C-alpha cells in the first residue's frame, strides 16, 4: 500500500516550486498564498524535510525540494496527458455518410480533407455503395441519393439538380457536333433503368442529330471508369457536370458543345426517427455549404 502525503500538499508544492512564488502558485490553484504556505508546511512536516528556504519576498528550493520537484512535475504532466487523451476519446464521434461509388470517388474524396480540417473531432466514414443503404438500421447516418424521390420515412433535402453534357479531352480536338461522326462514343450502363437517363440515344434525339449509331462505342459498368477513360482520351461521353467539375476546372476535360440534359436532384437524406445529433448536423451543414459556395 502506498503511503503518500495529501495530494493538496503535493500540488501546492509543485506549483510553488515551479513558479518559485507562493503568490503565483495561489493564482494558478485559485487559493490564497496563505493556503499555499500552510499546505507546503504540512507537507514538509509529513515527510520530515524542508523543501523551501524562506527569504524576504522570495523563496528558494532546498536540495530536497530540487529532488522532489521534477518527480512531481513529470507525474502531474503525465496525469494531464492521459486524462486529456481519455477525455478526447470520449468526445470523439463517428458519422457515416452513404453515397454512390462514383460520387464518393469524384466529389467527396477530393473535399474530405477540408472537412477533416474543420472538424477533426468527427470521424467521418464514407460508405460507397450502389445498394440503397437502410438508414433506419443504423448502417449510415446520412445518405446522398440521386433520383426523383419520394423518400418515405426520410427527411430529404435537395442539394442540387445534376446536368449532363458531352465531355471530352481537349486533346481529341472535338469542337462541333459533326465531329461526333468520327468520334468514339463512351457509355455508362446505368444501374437503374429510366427513360430520363442521360443516354446518347436521348441526347442525339434532343440535339436533332441523325445518322449516328447511339449504341456504338465503348461501354463501362462503372461510372468512375468511364470518367477515367474520357480523361485518357478514349472518346467522348455524356457525364455528370457535377462529377467532372474538378476536371473541367483544371482543363483536363471540356464541354465542346450542348445541349445539356437535366438529370435528377441530389438529395441529402436521413432517418426521421433517429435523433439529429450535433455531429450529424455538422456534416449536413458542411454539405450544404459546398453546394451554396459552388452551385452546380
From TrEMBL:
<comment type="function">
    <text>NodD regulates the expression of the nodABCFE genes which encode other nodulation proteins. NodD is also a negative regulator of its own expression. Binds flavonoids as inducers.</text>
</comment>
<dbReference type="InterPro" id="IPR036388">
    <property type="entry name" value="WH-like_DNA-bd_sf"/>
</dbReference>
<keyword id="KW-0804">Transcription</keyword>
<protein>
    <submittedName>
        <fullName>LysR family transcriptional regulator</fullName>
    </submittedName>
</protein>
<comment type="similarity">
    <text>Belongs to the LysR transcriptional regulatory family.</text>
</comment>
<dbReference type="Pfam" id="PF00126">
    <property type="entry name" value="HTH_1"/>
</dbReference>
<keyword id="KW-0238">DNA-binding</keyword>
<dbReference type="GO" id="GO:0043565">
    <property type="term" value="F:sequence-specific DNA binding"/>
</dbReference>
<dbReference type="InterPro" id="IPR058163">
    <property type="entry name" value="LysR-type_TF_proteobact-type"/>
</dbReference>
<dbReference type="GO" id="GO:0003700">
    <property type="term" value="F:DNA-binding transcription factor activity"/>
</dbReference>
<dbReference type="InterPro" id="IPR000847">
    <property type="entry name" value="LysR_HTH_N"/>
</dbReference>
<dbReference type="InterPro" id="IPR036390">
    <property type="entry name" value="WH_DNA-bd_sf"/>
</dbReference>
<feature type="domain" description="HTH lysR-type">
    <location>
        <begin position="5"/>
        <end position="62"/>
    </location>
</feature>
<dbReference type="Pfam" id="PF03466">
    <property type="entry name" value="LysR_substrate"/>
</dbReference>
<keyword id="KW-0805">Transcription regulation</keyword>
<dbReference type="GO" id="GO:0006351">
    <property type="term" value="P:DNA-templated transcription"/>
</dbReference>
<dbReference type="InterPro" id="IPR005119">
    <property type="entry name" value="LysR_subst-bd"/>
</dbReference>
Amino acid at each position: 500500500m502506498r503511503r503518500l502525503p495529501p495530494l493538496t500538499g503535493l500540488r501546492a508544492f509543485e506549483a510553488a516550486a515551479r513558479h518559485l512564488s507562493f503568490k503565483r502558485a495561489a493564482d494558478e490553484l485559485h487559493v490564497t498564498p496563505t493556503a499555499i504556505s500552510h499546505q507546503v508546511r504540512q507537507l514538509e512536516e509529513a515527510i520530515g524535510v524542508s523543501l523551501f528556504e524562506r527569504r524576504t519576498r522570495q523563496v528558494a528550493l532546498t536540495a530536497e525540494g530540487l529532488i522532489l520537484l521534477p518527480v512531481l512535475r513529470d507525474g502531474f504532466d503525465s496525469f494531464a496527458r492521459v486524462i486529456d487523451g481519455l477525455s478526447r476519446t470520449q468526445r470523439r464521434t463517428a458519422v457515416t455518410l452513404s453515397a454512390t461509388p462514383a460520387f464518393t470517388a469524384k466529389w467527396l474524396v477530393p473535399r474530405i480533407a477540408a472537412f477533416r480540417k474543420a472538424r477533426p473531432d468527427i470521424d467521418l466514414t464514407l460508405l460507397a455503395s450502389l445498394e440503397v443503404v437502410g438508414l433506419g438500421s443504423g448502417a449510415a447516418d446520412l445518405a446522398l441519393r440521386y433520383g426523383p424521390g419520394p423518400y418515405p420515412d426520410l427527411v430529404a433535402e435537395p442539394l442540387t439538380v445534376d446536368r449532363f453534357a458531352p465531355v471530352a479531352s481537349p486533346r481529341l480536338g472535338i469542337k462541333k457536333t459533326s465531329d461526333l461522326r468520327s468520334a468514339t462514343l463512351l457509355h455508362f450502363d446505368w444501374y437503374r433503368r429510366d427513360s430520363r437517363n442521360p443516354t446518347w440515344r436521348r441526347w442525339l434525339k434532343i440535339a436533332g442529330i441523325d445518322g449516328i449509331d447511339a449504341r456504338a462505342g465503348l461501354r463501362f459498368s462503372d461510372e468512375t471508369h468511364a470518367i477515367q477513360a474520357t480523361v485518357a482520351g478514349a472518346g467522348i461521353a455524356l457525364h455528370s457536370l457535377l462529377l467532372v467539375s474538378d476536371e473541367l476546372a483544371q482543363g483536363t476535360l471540356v464541354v465542346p458543345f450542348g445541349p445539356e440534359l437535366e438529370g435528377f436532384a441530389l438529395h441529402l437524406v436521413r432517418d426521421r426517427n433517429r435523433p439529429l445529433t450535433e455531429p450529424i448536423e455538422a456534416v449536413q451543414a458542411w454539405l450544404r455549404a459546398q453546394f451554396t459556395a459552388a452551385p452546380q
